[in-house]
Fold each of these.
Amino acid sequence: MTNQESSYYKKLFDKYFDALLIINMNNETIIDANRSVEKVLGYKLDELIGTKFSALFPEKSEMRNKSDLFNSLNDGIFVQDFLNAKGDIIYLEMTLTIIQQDSMDTLLISLRNLSKLVRVEKQLRQTLKIVKELSRKDTLTDLHNRRSLINIINNETYRFERNHIPFVIMIADIDHYKYINDEYGHDTGDFVLKEIACLLSQTIRKQDVVGRWGGDEFLFLLPETDIEGAKSLSESLRDKIASTVFQYNDKKFQLSMTFGFAVFRAEETIETCLKKADNALYQGKKSGRNKCIAARGNN
């Protein structure tokens, strides 16, 4: 290459819009950079020349701690976090091109700032996560909603098909809830639902799931549980609710709940098991409320 050609390419290199670095692949040091690097990274050129390229990455970055940084890289485009001169983490699109220069293995690196785009993408992911979470939650009680419960139960049936470990479906509702709404108003009714939801979720075992099935009905999935385990848990829940004094503004009152439950069996569908639990709940209501009733054939 003639001196004139070399001068031309040097001017092109210096004025190129994207930040450009040239790295000596043998010792991983920066041997040249253009003016756009100052805008992107905030370092002066004389601060960069001769420094290790890995020093531009945050301390905990995997790239900074790779002993074979360039041996693991080929030509390509990556999005990578960098550390600018202010100590802030920024996200740059890094385009790599291996070139020969004066019998030296060098790497031409083009850097383009994508920090705004990456931040927007992260915010979008977080928003989608929140939306997904909200789609599974009952807005009043913050428990699983009906759709979420159905998905969880379906997953449990797939597990049952593999290991045949029994599980129980239990349905419960608040006794005389309509009277509470009519007598004290819907604000009190909503308060009751939230308080009951809190008591239920605090009392069940870690592996159990509870959600709002609809209205004042709550549904429980009790994995790895037989009928005796369901009886024990339901009685514990019933006792705790019956012994709690609820207070909303100047009103104090006590409540009770009725529980119906059924063990899922291989020969039946989820719909059948839900119906059996619901029928058991109805029997409890019919026989005086504040009861825990196993489905017929489960005793």
Amino acid sequence: MKKLVIFDLDGTLLNTIADLGSACNVALSTLGYPTHDLQQYQFMVGNGITKLIERALPVQYHDQSVIDRARKHFLEYYGTHCMDLTQPYLGIIELLNQLTGKGIMVAVASNKYQEAVTKLIGHYFPSIKWIAVEGQRDGRPIKPNPAVVDEILTAAGITSRENALYVGDSGVDMDTARNARLESVGVTWGFRPESELREHQAQNIVNHPSEILSIACQ
């Protein structure tokens, strides 16, 4: 049985795409740029807010000053609207309760900025005892660099990487797990297609949260 399960946030624990897309559209429209259908943002997220904005902007406007201005507007809006439409995926709360009930530690490793990660986890999962809740912070590289995972393993007192599982919905997550030398689980209910998970060498692919419990308890 695993001692620790590390989860990605967006597209894995929470369906955040409508609020992320709305915030990005507000930033774009404020600066006079065209917006996108909310579902298009599924293929823009995953590498942090700055990269999201860069992907959303017309390519001819990939100037750092424009990106910085758009980021500012995004953060102002998302900070107060990040929970308008966001919801946990069906079965996630039950999974977290089952894992912790069996004594398995749980943690979050996200490329979303730390303030938002802390706020969302506190709001949607107030009864879950997390060993770590980690978002993007200055001075630490983002995933797929394994630095955040390494920090979580240390915080959890995990010395053997065979005792931890990494769960996510994207190629970035599968690469993170491989770089951290952890067993990976790709979920199909998130933002990216199953084909991406396979292309990035997911060791397990699941269609429902209950399957994660089975893998963690093997």
Amino acid sequence: MAGFAASAKKPRNLFAMTHKKSALVTGAGSGIGRAVAIALHDAGYRVALAGRRQAELERTAGPREHMLVVPTDVSVPESVRALFARIKETYGRLDLLFNNAGRGAPAVPIEDLTFEQWNTVVGVNLTGAFLCAQEAIRMMKQQEPKGGRIINNGSISAHTPRPNSAPYTATKHAITGLTKSISLDGRAHNIACGQIDIGNAATEMTDRMAAGVLQANGSVAVEARMDVRHVADAVLYMAQLPLDANVQFMTVMATQMPFIGRG
């Protein structure tokens, strides 16, 4: 009876009480962003969902509490500032940024790319990651307790390009440099930064691989994919480390995808 009486005194809304840390996931309206946002929420984070399509962000949030939908264009400084103002107003702090928003250009020879296509990819993949990291760092340096974690989505393309992928590959190589710079500059402020490089997670973006995609030798081949939940689990592991530990770089990929060796 004593044990029952003790348990009866526990707060009724235990779920709400566990949601103390706050996270921001960009590109949260689909694929990897959606899976990671839900995993973070289920692990006890309050999660801000950023992306261009409000309807898809609402789909991610569903009936869950402790999710904040903020339509955002990460390539526009004013939009990013408004996003972080909402987070500060709602949560008071930010413990984790998952810089995930990204897009590609048409798979055409580099000489056929337009300036607008190049600029759009750079704006979202690189400038967007920079703008969000910049605002996150400002908040993390000012909050109490100070500090936080930034995880950048690098992609396998941060190491090895696909044919006809110059804009995407260039930005993902640049993300590696951004990750290293944030890691170095954030040390003094208890801000950790790591990068996850993902290969062939089963999302809408990789559906085309089931039909076959162009390989480096000019052939077309079907590529293996993995469940996106494995990506969410990996990001969650990185996120839940104490700030005195960091996964600097992690690669999670479908075992049989062409990457190691000659394809």
